[in-house]
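Why run this: before we spend reagent on co-expression, it is cheaper to look at a predicted model of the complex and decide which construct boundaries make sense. The entries below are exactly what would go into the expression plan.
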Amino acid sequence: MRTSKDIDGPLETPVRFVFPQWSNLLLPTVIGAILVVPIYAALVLTYGLSPVTHNVGYMPIQPIPFSHKIHAGELGLDCRYCHNTVEYAAKAAIPPTQTCMTCHAQVQPESEALKPLWESYGEGTAILWQRVHDLPDYVFFDHSAHVERGVGCATCHGRIDEMDVVFQTQPLSMGWCLECHRDPEPNLRPLDEITNLAFDSLRDQTAQVRRGLLDISHISPSEDCSTCHR
Amino acid sequence: MNTLPRPFLFVLIGIAIVAMIPPVIIMRMRSTNQTQPRIHWIQDMDNQPKFRAQHANSLFADGRAMRQPVSGTVARGELRADTHFFQGIANDAWATMFPDQARETPDLLARGQEQFTIYCTPCHGPIGYGDGPVNQRALAVMGDPARSKGTTWVEPKSIHDADIIAQPVGQLFNTITNGVRTMGSYKSRISVRDRWAIVAYMRELQQRETANRANAPSVGQPNNQSEGNQP
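The model came back. Tokens follow.
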């Protein structure tokens, strides 16, 4: 708001407008912004949209607090005891309630945590397990093709035997798949170590052995679109 | 030193603070596990309105997209009329021989060992004495009132008991297929041929352990000395 002082003062005599001294800072500020903003935007977009940011670490809450650490880790159950379709089917199926009941019909049947299991067993309803590793619907990944050629469970799923609640450890992005399809050797293991989650392809065998595995299983993965997108 | 007027300064500081928010969110997402559903920025055709194995489908009463065979029907190739191969019954008695589809070859034995290790070892132990890790844990759970929660565990049998050794192969096959006493059925998990492979490997184990027990005193070795050896 103008005061009488403003009207009486400078307005009466014409003066030249002089840029205040701080305006010297504007030019470096603008140049700095032109340099920094694109870099900032690129970094935020790259990391913000990356599958490593969004998909790795997804750990949904399951209807039953099933612990892979106890079952696969401490008890040492083979992955195939429950996910038995993995050797001949595209999908490593979630086991039916009956598989759980092999033991839990007798072990801790009155446990509060197992109530949904008994409900499912009695009424024939499905337990709504939440899917952790989910590929886009236009990707046709085949478990058997990988498991039968020396790509172990741990390569894509990590140390499930150390997880109480399973979470995703790999990005499962197309770039990540192609990395291995272009150079599968570091991820190969002997067929009898497929479900051994503690086995490390790089640590526990020499490069010569891995190259041998390439030849034994005649591995030359395709990079054609139609290999995965049918 | 002249400085920017205050309003300009505040705006710049404000922009700098707001600009920190996305990197902080990204760093947090990358360093912690998330229980809430993923944010899916670019949908493409990632989630299509179609049903694949084990998907849910609210159109059906049971909520499953996968359907059961219509009752009273038999799918092609699923008649399973060969009672010897599919049920272990030959001439109205437990089969004493292996069926033609699963002859006792080294391949079958190797497969049997693998399948035995996956499905039988948890309870029956690596050699079949009934001392598997599940048995040990179940006994520990049953003995601990705080964890028991109604546990009634019957120890798995040793496959080296005389009555098991005396069983014909068809009966062993039937036990794996349909279960017995507290042991569950494995027919949905183990293929028919693999069940015969397990029976073949069990016979191999029984013969080896019987031979070990017979030889042990004369050789002067503990009779479980060869337990770690696998063919």
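Chain A touches chain B through 55 residues (CB under 8 Å). The radius of gyration of chain A is 30 Å. Bring this page to Monday's planning discussion.
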